[in-house]
Amino acid sequence: MADLSIDFCGIKSPNPFWLASAPPTDKAYNVVRAFEAGWGGVVWKTLGEDPPAVNVSSRYSALHGKNREVIGFNNIELITDRSLEINLREITAVKKAWPDRALVVSMMLPCEEAPWREILPLVEATGADGIELNFGCPHGMPERGMGAAVGQQPDLIEQVTRWCKTYTRLPVIVKLTPNITDVRAPARAALAGGADAVSLINTINSITHLDLDRMVAFPAVGNASTHGGYCGTAVKPIALNMVAEIARDPMTKGLPISGIGGIGNWRDAAEFIALGAGSVQVCTAAMLHGFRIVEEMKDGLSRWMDSKGYDNIAAFSRKAVPNTTDWKYLDMNYQVIAHIDQDKCIQCGRCHVACEDTSHQAIARLVDGNARKYEVIEPECVGCNLCEITCPVEGCITMVPQQTGKPYMNWTQDPRNPRAEVTLDEA
Ligand SMILES: Cc1cc2nc3c(=O)[nH]c(=O)nc-3n(C[C@H](O)[C@H](O)[C@H](O)COP(=O)(O)O)c2cc1C
Ligand code: SF4
Ligand code: SF4
C-alpha cells in the first residue's frame, strides 16, 4: 500500500491532509476530534495579540447551486477570538497528546518587531512543529494594517518573515493572499526573507449576493455588510493556478508549497500535489461535511497511488509542473475534433446551439420527420471543447486527437507569427 506520510519543510505528518487555519482548528476540542478522525495535521486558527478579536453576527454567506450544493463560501470572520494564553495552553496539551501529527500555529501580529520577538518564543515553547504567517486575511484585519495588507506588499512580507526566522527555530510557512496581480512577487519575497515554505491561497475578496428587498449584501450585520473572503469549490481553479505559478517560477523553484483552496476530495488533493504542493489544507469542505471526509480522502488517494504505482507522495509530487507552460510553447500543430457517440446522445440539441451561436457552426442538426440527429462537421470543428462541456451526457461527446503528420511547432516557430521571438532551443 502507498505510503502517504510526508516531510514538509521538516514537519512530519502521517498523511498530507491538514486542516487549514479556520473554525475547524479553533480550539483543542475540534483539533482532537479531527486527529481522531485521521487528519495528518492542522494549522491552528490564527493567533493574535491580546485582547482577542471580536466578531460580528452574522458571518457567513454562500453561493448555492441548483440543488442547494455550496459552490462557494464567504466569511467575514476575524482571527481567533480567544486569548493567547488559552490558545497556547491548549496547543501545548494537544501536541503532547498527538506527537505524530503536524501542528502548525498560524499567527498575525502588527508589522513591528517587538510583538514578534515577544510572542514567537511562547509559541515555540508549546512544542508546535511550525508557524504559518497569515498574510492573507482579506477582511477586517487589513483595515488594521495586518493580513492581506501585508501580503500585498512584498517588502513587508520579507521583513516580517526575517523577524520570524530571527526569533524562532521553527519552520516558517508564509500564507499568501490571492488578492494580488502576480502571486510570484510575494512568494519571492517570502523566500528572500528566509521562509521555509509558502501556503496558498487564503480567501478571495467577495460579495456573494444581495437581499434586494433590504438592499444589503449577505452576510448582513443589521442593515449593512462588507466584503468577505471567498473559498470552497469555486476557488479551486484560481488556487491551482497560483500554486503552479510558484512551482514553475525559476526564482522559487523547489520552495515547498502547502496547497489550499477548494479541496474537497482525494482527486483535488492529487491535483494540487501534482502541480507543486507538498501538503494540502482543507477548510470549507470540512466545515460543510465534517471531519470524517478525511477517510475518503486518504483511502481514495492511497488506492489511486497504488493503481499508478506511486509508492509515496514524492513519486508524483510536481509531476504535472513541467507540462504547465506559457501559451507560446503550446503545439500549434496539435488538433482535436469533437466526436458524438450516437448511442449515448439524447438529442437535446445543446451542443448544436452552443456551437451554432457562439463557436464555429460545426454541429449539424439533421431533421427527418420527428427524428433529430446531431453530427459534427469535421472540417469546421476547431476543437474548442465547448460542445463536450455543454453536453449533459457524460462521455457522449469526446475530443479525438487527429493524426496531422505535422511535427511539434510552437508559436515562437510559427511562420504565421509576425514577431517570432525565440527558437525551440531557447524555449
Ligand atoms: C470561516 C473562515 C475563517 C477563516 N479564518 C482563517 C484564519 O483565521 N486564518 C487563516 O489563515 N485563514 C483563515 N481562513 C481561510 C482558510 O484557512 C483557507 O485558506 C480558505 O478557506 C481556502 O480553503 P478552502 O477552500 O478549503 O476553504 C478562514 C476561512 C473561513 C471559511
Ligand atoms: S469542439 Fe467547438 S467547434 Fe468543434 S463542434 Fe464542438 S463546439 Fe463546435
Ligand atoms: S449535447 Fe450531447 S446529448 Fe445533447 S444533442 Fe449534443 S451530443 Fe446529444
UniProtKB/TrEMBL annotation:
Reaction(s) catalysed by this chain's protein: 5,6-dihydrothymine + NAD(+) = thymine + NADH + H(+); 5,6-dihydrouracil + NAD(+) = uracil + NADH + H(+)
Database matches in SUPFAM superfamilies: 4Fe-4S ferredoxins, FMN-linked oxidoreductases
4Fe-4S ferredoxin-type domain span: 336-365, 372-402
Keywords: Iron, Iron-sulfur, Metal-binding, Oxidoreductase
Highest taxon above the source species: Bacteria
Signal peptide feature range: none
GO molecular function annotations of the record: dihydropyrimidine dehydrogenase (NAD+) activity
InterPro entries, sorted: 4Fe4S_Fe-S-bd, 4Fe4S_Fe_S_CS, Aldolase_TIM, Dihydroorotate_DH_cat
Coiled coil: none
EC number(s) on file: 1.3.1.1
Gene3D superfamilies referenced in this protein's UniProt entry, alphabetically: 3.30.70.20, Aldolase class I
Region (Disordered): 408-427
PANTHER family, sorted: DIHYDROPYRIMIDINE DEHYDROGENASE [NADP(+)]
Stated family: Belongs to the dihydropyrimidine dehydrogenase family.
Complex and partners: Heterotetramer of 2 PreA and 2 PreT subunits.
Cited function: Involved in pyrimidine base degradation. Catalyzes physiologically the reduction of uracil to 5,6-dihydrouracil (DHU) by using NADH as a specific cosubstrate. It also catalyzes the reverse reaction and the reduction of thymine to 5,6-dihydrothymine (DHT).
Protein name, UniProt field: dihydrouracil dehydrogenase (NAD(+))
Organism listed in the record: Telluria antibiotica
